[in-house]
Specification:
This is Peptidase S9 prolyl oligopeptidase catalytic domain-containing protein. It is a single chain. The chain has about 575 residues and is α/β, with parallel strands linked by helices. The two termini are about 45 Å apart. It folds into 2 domains: about 280 residues, 3-Layer(aba) Sandwich (Rossmann fold), CATH 3.40.50.1820; about 260 residues, Alpha/Beta hydrolase fold, catalytic domain (Rossmann fold). It is about 25% helix and about 25% strand. An 11-stranded mixed sheet has the order 1-9-10-11-8-7-6-4-5-3-2, with helices on both faces.
Length: about 575
């Protein structure tokens, strides 16, 4: 299972401290890349007539799909891994979509066969699609008298995500040669709705009219970019656009695979990079597609953590990359469940000193996964520094049951898992904490209203609330004070989280007033994009945070902030009282 079990760590390109180049970057001097061999490839990276073609991988069956765009039927071929449903249930946000755009004179089926994307999709666990251009070719320039190919490809990518139950915030990658490469660049630059994270184009750049647009007339986005040059044109304008968009400040020259490559990148964030490689073989080959996947597409993910700049790029991380251990175990007969655990490296030393460790659970959102929750929240990084244990549970079919029913199975799963952790590790019973994202926040609220005595504090962030009527249920306790930190994105819509506006209001009132009896005006703390109202006049602390420039997504740096400013300060004593540390 691709990322849920293993994914190679992203490569890091290191800037040297040599002299400045004409672009003002620090770079490592190196001989200029050799000119491309012209014997077997054209300037737009196609095989020359009569050239011996590389063997194609065995053909895999493609599904022909038809969608209606602007009243017109359009078609694309799709290849989804045979176990895509399982991949989705185990790690829905780890199933990417690769859009491969054929060149003029080539069919979408031939593109699939020559590139080998279907075989790679089966091996690596992503979905590959191959849109079909009209006989007149791709409408790269958005000519209003022709079919809107931009809207078509955006719609095709969205249809694939819907068909396989993949989250709308997942990563999409664009690849194309010749006119297909022009189309890929146009989409990457102009159509944020396609949700592209990376683009690879061969012997092609965007339309001159697009490249001539003022920088502030195009959507702001950073993107992992790989430009392949097979002829004399170095695509200087296209490369300049992406350098500016990515804010690159360093440069390196090295071989990627066997290709001479110049990489512009951000020193403090090397996954944000723009590559230019010489290619001496046809773009449409399985070996080139594998190189693109293994050296770029498979190593980067986009988080939707700001609205004004189309999110941010991050290195994709596997369970092993993050130092987590996966467990699949039946805590009850016939009910295998799974979770990831982080144990800090100082665990044995602390236990030898007679200490017990705090324990934090972090629940993923609907259509999320334990791995993705770990990657976005980074609780384990905080735990490494502060010396506590983190558990990332995984919901059945990537979802949670958040009903107020007394026999809620996921509440029971949590209780069983808590006992499992106490049996396996030296846990400080008085310092157990809950956190969640979206539906995982709803589950955090659901557990805490019934079992508040188990926790020193909870941090349900972002969104995710119970229905307003839930708080009248007899199992809901109001007799136990509990520090609570709730948060939401300023641009979240009420429809984007359980309970809607009524649920949010009810949750705030329940924790702030009904349980913790805070009625005085709050203190206001502003920290960058975060504005937090802090109540401390009642039985226990309550915080309400709104983060600007973000919608329904995890707030960057939130775990560290919540630990430092609230969670680590509290303990639940054996008599049930709260102690501020």
């Amino acid at each position: 299972m691709k990322k849920f079990t293993m994914l190679a760590a992203a490569s890091v390109v290191v800037a040297g401290c040599g002299g400045g180049g004409s672009n003002g970057y620090a770079f490592i001097p190196a001989p200029a890349p050799p000119p491309p061999a012209q014997a077997t490839v054209t300037e737009d990276c196609a095989a020359l007539p009569g050239a011996t073609a590389a063997p194609s991988p065995a053909a895999l069956p493609l599904a022909l799909q038809t969608i209606k765009v602007n009243g017109e039927d359009r078609q694309y071929y799709e290849y989804a891994p045979r176990d895509v449903a399982t991949l989705r249930d185990q790690d829905a946000r780890g199933v990417e979509v690769v859009v491969s755009l054929h060149r003029t004179g080539q069919s979408a089926e031939d593109n699939a066969r020559l590139t080998g994307w279907p075989a790679l999709a089966e091996e690596k666990g992503f979905v590959a699609i191959f849109p079909v251009a009209k006989p007149s070719g791709w409408n790269t320039a958005k000519d209003t008298t022709r079919s809107d190919d931009h809207a078509f490809i955006v719609a095709a990518a969205a249809a694939v995500r819907t068909r396989h139950g993949l989250p709308s915030t997942m990563s999409t990658f664009l690849a194309g040669a010749g006119s297909g490469g022009v189309m890929a660049q146009e989409l990457a630059m102009r159509e944020l709705a396609v949700m592209a994270t990376g683009v690879a184009s061969f012997g092609a750049a965007a339309e001159p009219a697009t490249l001539d647009l003022a920088a502030d007339s195009l959507p702001k986005t950073a993107m992992a970019v790989w430009q392949f040059q097979c002829g004399a044109d170095p695509f200087a304008t296209q490369m300049g656009f992406w350098r500016q968009a990515n804010g690159t400040d360093a440069q390196n020259q090295q071989a990627v695979g066997d290709l001479p490559t110049v990489t512009d990148f951000v020193q403090d964030h090397p996954v944000q990079q723009v590559r230019l490689s010489r290619l001496d073989r046809p773009a449409e080959s399985a070996s080139v597609s594998r190189l693109v996947w293994e050296e770029l597409f498979g190593k980067v993910v986009r988080f939707p953590d700001n609205k004004s700049y189309n999110g941010t790029l991050h290195a994709e991380k596997s369970i092993a990359d993050m130092g987590l251990a996966e467990t699949i175990k039946s805590l009850r007969p016939g009910e295998p469940r799974r979770w990831l655990t982080y144990v800090p490296p100082q665990y044995q030393k602390l236990v030898a000193e007679g200490k017990k460790l705090p324990l934090l659970f972090s629940f993923h959102g609907r259509n999320g996964s334990a791995r993705f929750q770990a990657q976005i929240s980074q609780w384990h990084d905080v735990a490494r520094d502060e010396g506590f244990i983190v558990v990332y549970p995984h919901g059945l079919k990537a979802t949670w049951t958040t009903s107020i029913d007394a026999d809620n199975p996921d509440v029971q799963f949590f209780l069983d898992l808590l006992e499992e952790m106490k049996t396996t590790y030296q846990i400080d019973d008085g310092r157990v904490f809950l956190n969640g994202s979206s539906q995982g926040t709803a589950l955090t609220n659901r557990i805490a209203v019934q079992h508040p005595q188990l926790f020193a504090a909870i941090a349900p962030c972002y969104s995710g609330h119970l229905s307003a009527a839930s708080y009248a249920n007899p199992i809901v306790r109001t007799d136990i004070a509990l520090p609570v930190w709730q948060c939401r994105g300023e641009q979240e819509l009420p429809t984007e989280f359980p309970g809607g506006t009524a649920g949010e209001t009810a949750a705030r009132t329940f924790w702030r007033e009904t349980v913790n009896q805070n009625f005085s005006p709050p203190a206001i703390a502003i920290d960058g994009r975060r504005t937090t109202e802090i109540w401390n006049s009642g039985r226990a602390e309550y915080r309400w945070q709104i983060t600007s420039d973000i919608g329904h997504a995890w707030h960057p740096g939130q775990a560290r902030k919540m630990w430092d400013e609230m969670l680590k300060r509290y303990r639940r004593n054996p008599d049930g009282s709260l102690q501020r540390l």
